Amino acid sequence: MSDQVGAPARITPERILAALRLPTRGRMVNLSHTLENGMPVPDFHGPFLMTTHRTVRGTLDMYKEANENRLGSIVCRYELADHTGTHIDALNHASEGFELYGGLDAREVTTDTGTTALGVDTLPPIVTRGVLADIPSYLGVQTLDDGYEITEKDIAGALRSQGLSLHEGDALLIRTGFSRFWMVDNARYLGYSPGVGTEAAEWIAEQRVSVTGADNSSYDVVKRGSSKLFPCHQILLKRAGIPLVENLVLEELSAMHVTQFLFVCTPLRFRGGAGSPVTPVALF
Predict the structure, then answer these.
(1) Rounded Cα gap, residues 11 and 210, in angstroms
(2) Does the chain have fewer CB atoms within 10 Å around its N or its C terminus?
(3) Which domain holds residue 33?
(4) Which helix H or strand E contains 196, and what residues bound it?
């Protein structure tokens, strides 16, 4: 299979240079959550655990025979799934049956250490124009209701109200307002959240963006009683090759009314990994 990159290949040198001209105020906003014990992580992915592996006292005791300058050191250890905190989904993350992006059979490429194709290590650093679709502000609410399905009309209307349109290769970020429940009401955050519906996902794919993300846990809307499991992942990741960024923090951009910016997002290069924690930033 030749295509290991998917939609991020739309970020051409010309689009990077155009995006680099967007910042005019010299401001930067971190769009990620802090990783810490007790943060919301779906059971499917497993817990996040952080421990202090080495302390200053322990280091001084360990090297007391050959440490004339008394160097102390703290070292921490982290145990986490690749879909922990603010993270990006790689193209190998979602399938339709056994079929992955590009028609690959998951059974043929999966090993004990990830996959031999479409891993997060194949995604390039993402440097492109970012566009925020601030759905709650457009609808005149603080936060979308639990289980609210974001439609094409919502996204197009929000962008139109902000005087923006999508360009090929853009990063489309969608605000639901649901990040306010992170570490405040984790059960609600991981529950029936607002998110993108299938109609909107089909429309997003047609816009030929390079990446899209949202400030909820699943990107997809999670409705009570639904018989479908994250269908937007299939539409965007599996069919269109568009990586998803989940658990974004978009409140500061919204409060500052910043809806167009330089978006930078660099995944860790886990060979064959299905995703990676990221710390995306918006510069404007």
Answers:
(1) 7
(2) N
(3) 7-40+82-283
(4) strand 195-196
Count CB-CB contacts under 10 A for residue 273.
23
In a domain, 1, yes or no: no
Q: Find the radius of gyration of the CA atoms of the chain.
A: 20
Structure tokens given for 5: 């990159």
pLDDT, tens digit, 9 for 90 and up, residues 16-30: 999 999 999 999 999
Q: Which of 79, 94, 127 is the last residue of a domain?
A: 79
Using CA atoms, how far apart are residues 8 and 123, in angstroms rounded to an integer? 7
pLDDT tens sequence across 33-55: 999 999 999 999 999 999 999 99
Q: Report the distance separating Cα 82 and Cα 41, nearest Å.
A: 11
Same domain, 72 and 137: no
Q: Using the 8-state DSSP alphabet, how is residue 179 labeled?
A: G
Q: Full-prediction pTM beyond 0.85? A: yes
* Apex 261 CA angle, 164 and 214, nearest 5: 80
The 10s digit of each residue's pLDDT in 231-250 is 999 999 999 999 999 999 99
